[in-house]
Amino acid sequence: MKQINRKMLATTLTLALVVPLAVACTKGDKSDDKKERVLRIANSMGYGGDDEYFRQQFTEIFEFANPNIKIELVPTMDEKYRYGNIQPGEKMPDPMEKLKEVMQSDNPPDVVMVGYEQLPDMIESNLLTQLDPQITKDKFDTSGIVPAVIDGIKNAGGGKLYALAPTFTSSALIYNKKMFTDAGADFPKDGMTWDEIFDLSKRLVKGEGENRINGFSFSTQSQGDNLFYGMQMYTAPLQLKMFDDAGEKMTVDTDQWEKVWAKMAQLQKDNVFPELMDPNKPMNRKFDQDNPFSYDDFMSNRLAMGIINYGQLQQITNANKSAANYKGYTPIDWDVVTIPSHPEAKGVGGSIYMNGIMGINAKAQNPEDAWKFIKFINGEDWAKLKSHSSYNLVARSKYLKPKDGLEFHMEAFYNVVPAPMENNMKIYRENPNIYQVQEIGRQQFSSVLQGKITAREGLKQWQTQGDAMLKQMKENPGQPIQPTMMQAVPAG
Q1: What is the DSSP string of 145-164?
Q2: Which N-terminal stretch is annotated as signal sequence (predicted)?
Q3: 334-337 and 348-349 as β-strands: parallel, antiparallel, unpaired?
């Protein structure tokens, strides 16, 4: 009986939230709300017509508020490929190419959802309708949309808006206040450069062996051998590329790449980053069965500063509340500031993901309802309803507030601009083995960190081996890379 009552209460609460939203969003609408219409939506992610997650996330509330408008999801992926059911030698269709195809068909979708890295291509191909005229006409307020979203989308459109995104996830720099106080160092601030953060982190390095405190990490969780992947947050705003746009030639044997690798190797030598894991040694303190947070350097008081995703804050918050239940855990006094940036890319962060980037197809059959839908899910009322999430952030700053009575610098997660994204997902889809090219880079970088080779030597070897692998992929697409090709140049 109690379970039934709980379900009834949940339903009542949901309706209590949705009904005012429906009223607010239909009030004053002079369009013919009795006429039944169809709004077709397609995306580049392959969501099908019966995709429950997509409907729960984006369309159910709109359909409740607009019962005369039927949402029809247009699939862009054959069902047989949905779960990776690919036969040997078979090429998986590109959902992005399929999306472009259906957008220009005889029965095109009205609204399209794409990834941020795909947005420039859609705009350059003249496939999307510019939204600025509608925004001006309807006096739709975009001033409350956070820079991380509005500026990022404007940058993709050359200063114009061709899409909007209702939610996003972002990262910030978290720091342990006590460690700074003990070291007599000032707390980090918004808008610092990477070099300023690295210099500051050197002052926080303390102790040896098991008691060592490191100054900074690109992740709060033990990165082990993953500095190579973590530092992509550093290289993304610099637009350093692994290979050219055609995926045929490596682009790493350069002075700029050398500067980055040499800097990271020196910081590793200065103990700024957590120690490298030695595969020949037994598991250490980072995998202590008595400490449920041993894998997290920040929560285990081994790290002064680290990059953290907004969704991870919940874990620290819960641990602090229940510290008495965790043996050896001490509540951490923390706060966050914006991710550092480069002087040549001031304010540009490297870890922002927009969820639900949607625009209107230039060939939409129902552009009026398409704009109505986009305006709906990017409006104030929708943001207010969705702001209770612990993992996604709504794009309207008015509803971005710390939860559970916490006080921290929430603005750090949204007062940044996303780094330009490489539009090379097609290369990865067409050449699944291209990740092996990246793995060669990781191996060479590891040798650099261990002092076996110089940064330039590692990059030259990565360039040579990578070129050989890319050549083989072009000549034999979809075929496994031969080991002899991967070992074209000794690892040093």
Answers
A1: B-HHHHHHHHHHTTTS-S-B
A2: 1-24
A3: unpaired
Q: Where are the alpha helices (DSSP H) in 322-434?
A: 367-377, 380-386, 425-430
Residues across the chain: 492
Return the pLDDT at 48. 56
**Strand locations in 1-160 (E):** 37-43, 69-74, 111-114
Question: What phi-psi label fits residue 451: left (phi over 0), alpha (psi between -120 and 50 degrees) or beta?
Answer: left
Give the integer Cα–Cα distance in Å for 378 and 374.
Answer: 6
Pairing of strands 357-360, 303-309: unpaired
CATH topology of domain 170-347: D-Maltodextrin-Binding Protein; domain 2 (3.40.190)
pLDDT of residue 253 exceeding 50: yes
Tokens at 426, concatenated: 């097609």
C-alpha count within 13 angstroms, C-beta hemisphere, residue 54: 21
pLDDT band at 123 (very low <50, low <70, confident <90, very high): very high
pTM of the model: 0.85
Name which of 420, 473, 374, 383 is nearest 152 in CA terms.
420
pLDDT at 488 exceeding the cut of 50: no
pLDDT, tens only, 389-406 = 767 899 999 999 888 778
Q: Which of 415, 390, 392 is nearest to 146 (CA)?
A: 415
The answer as to CATH 3.30.70.1450 being correct for domain 2-81+92-166+356-399 is no
